Amino acid sequence: MDLDSLLVSLYFLAENWWKCAHSSDTPTVGRPSLISDPEILTLAILAQWPRFRSERDFFRFACAHLREYFPTLPSQSQFNRRVRALEGEMKSLQLHLARGMADASAVYHVLDTTLIPAVVRVRACRKGLFAGQATFGRCASKTEWVYGFKVGLAITPEGVVTTFCLAEASADERPVGEILIREDGHAAYLADKGFTSVKWERRWLSEHGALVAATPKDNSRRAWPEADRLWAAGKRQIIEGVINQLKDFFFLERHRAKTLEGLLARLAAKIAAYTCGQYLNRELGRPLRHLADLLV
User: What is the mean pLDDT of residues 39-63?
Assistant: First the structure.
């Protein structure tokens, strides 16, 4: 679809969800905003598409070409403040769309985490940006240390993100899994070696009714046969593809946030853009994860 069709489709999704989610809200006192919250959500999601190099680039485009749709477009600083204030609503919109696409009969969901940098490493020890919030974590796939945060994801076998969270980069993956399992509420999960633990697996089963099959370490007494390890690795490969799309297509690692609130808002917007793209693909009869050619 072209940009105008994508914009209208995103606004339709945001506006319809907003009316359903806030139908019982009491009217607020005072002068209403010149631009509505669903319009802000629409613009924030559209800004994540890779045709825009940065938020500043998108805002210049919006001022030049989207005034007919948004005649009361605020300044960029006001827009950014509104987006940060709507971070919770952005996440709720994404989860609403994801759960509408997720197959409730799926045997399992997949858990994993990925590291995203807070700032470039040479600035990591300077006071200011993310001081006391970001930490160092080791990226096993790239064999390097990353100063930043850890994003936890739970997805369906089709690649739909059903919940996500943010933790410091040095965080143990088991507590991150606890948050994902509690919020996702599915019955069974596949996970990699970072989540393996008899204690935690028993806890997840007793407290959340969730059976977690985390691949044990090779030197563990519970080590799986090679055939089982290969089967689980193949099934978990879907989440690697989702993470790569978020990083390569929606620039998850190049968020350019300067505060934790800004990072949370950008994370929610990027995953919402990914989910909206999947939703539109489903409506168009296309494979869910074919996002590169959705906008022409």
Answer: 93
